[in-house]
Fold this protein.
Amino acid sequence: MKPGKSTRIALLAYGIFTIAFLYLPLLSVGFASISKARYLTFPIKAYSTKWYGKALESASVHELIMTSLKLALIVTAISMVVGFFGALAFARYHWRYRTLFQKLIMLPIFFPQMVLGLALLMWFNSLGIIPTWKTAIVAHLVWIAPIATLIIAIRAYSFDPALEEAARDMGANTWTILREITLPLLMPGVISAGLFAFLLSWGNFPLSLFTTGADLTLPEWLYAKMVAGYSPLVPTLGIMSVVASFLLIMLAFSLRWLVRSVRDSRAAEN
Amino acid sequence: MTPDPILRLDGIVKRFGNFTALHGIDLDITEGEFLTIVGPSGSGKSTLIRLLVGMDEVTSGSIRLRGQEVQDTPANQRPTCMVFQSLALFPHMSVGQNIEFPLKIQGVTVSERKARALELLEMLRLPVSYYDKRITQCSGGEKQRVALARALAFDPEILFFDEPLSALDYRLRKTLEKELKDLHNRTGKTFVYITHSLEEAMVMSDRIAIMNEGRFVQIAVADEIYGAPVSRFVAEFMGEVNLFEVRGAQTTGLMAQDLQIHVNGNAADMGLGLDPGQVGTLMVRPEYVRFLPPGETADFIISGVMHADYALGSRIQYEVKVADGRLLTVEKLREDRFTGAPGDKVMLGFDAESAHLIHEGADGKI
């Protein structure tokens, strides 16, 4: 259906408004990051990229990024595995406590993260565990693994159970079915879940605040600097973080494109 | 002496909680035959086929494949294979990879797999270039053929079909029905097909098993099921039919309950008699009913008024209103069409050899 003229104008206006609403704040942070001044003032009088240079040289910035990266990568990997099997339990198989499982798994997502972080910290304390970035892995997983499960479950719902049955009927055992049928078909969901898991962990502040102990992640550092001791490194690292996330998404898209073209060219060769 | 059956079902019962889906199914399937199980939806035919391929477990009873009990053997260890209603083609694999899947599981080498897949493509009349085609790029009919090729690659002892043609349009379905029958002849394999379509069953099968409410009501060749059904259910399920409730009578052999049917002679002598007091159902298919011109006669004669006519393509269907107010169905080829108009008085006649008597109490148990 082709919309009428007034509808088209309304859609365009809505689109522009939405994009502006989402990206203007980011743009202003971008400007702040290339301001020459020591303090955040508008309008910006002189521009410089020196803060980017400083950020790249700083050892503490390196450490921040490494901590955030390690945390996010481990959370991503575990979320993908847990989410894959969780999604099968959530959407694919009918078992006795499935509806209960489906409800319980949603709860951590709706739990306020601040409260969840505090609760986890108290729990770690009572177990005698000293919080570091490693305990934050557990905290992040409590919140992120259910989200990964849901994302993969959406894919699993659109999956015809007859595909697995057909494979079994033709002699495949459970492991072969998982490797040849289930995993490849759910892979797009697993990849999306991985992307979400990484971005949610990379940008998470409330859970990290309570559970990283003496270690600092990037969002924690940004917050601390904004509250006390602003430096133009704040918008600089903010923008660098956004760019890193953006690059990751681009990387995922190009990987998908690469896999497809390899597969197609291999098919064409035969 | 009939040969040993390839598959023998003995008292198969399947219960889901309190609901009994199958009430003791017995059936012998002969090697190389094309058997179709037909029944309305909910009759238990899908439940039965899932038990036969091993996707569900029987509650009780036995399934013997060449004499060996297999009811507890899981699907992946049974030498049978099924073509699914949804076809269940793997969307992430090419046509060739789909066909080769069972061979890959069996550990056949790559080159041998490909040779076999190409052979099967040819057998199913698909171009060899389809080997690399993506499943999503295939049409409905092509997908059917790929699914068949994949099942044949498995080289099953028995090939099961779960209504694989039901999603296709009429013309394609007709073509594929004939191709399937042809494929059955060429491969010589045992085919067991389930469908709710009587036409499909009649076109393809050597034998038809009619199922209703978890039981077989009649198992016979198509002609017998069509011409001599054991119950009203089978008679009505197998297409248009005229049914008359009758009881035994002294001089004419039988008489209709609420309708004047003139019997020319004694029905008992024609093999359609009932003992006095006994009741039954007299059946005649619409194509065996004639319009009687003056002076012509038949074994059974009914008078009525032409009500309506419907063009069915090569045939024309007429509805004739008779004394008790109901409509009888008559079908004629175009060349034998009725020349009068609605409202005309007509005489309908049919002969004993084209009629069939269903005895009361034949409620579908065999």
The first strand of chain B starts at residue 7 and ends at 16. Confidence is low (pLDDT under 50) at residues 362-366 of chain B. The domain at 241-359 of chain B is CATH 2.40.50.140 (OB fold (Dihydrolipoamide Acetyltransferase, E2P)). Chain B touches chain A at residues 53-55, 74-77, 80-82, 84-86, 88, 90-92, 94, 96, 101-102, 105-106, 131-132, 134, 150, 154 (CB under 8 Å).
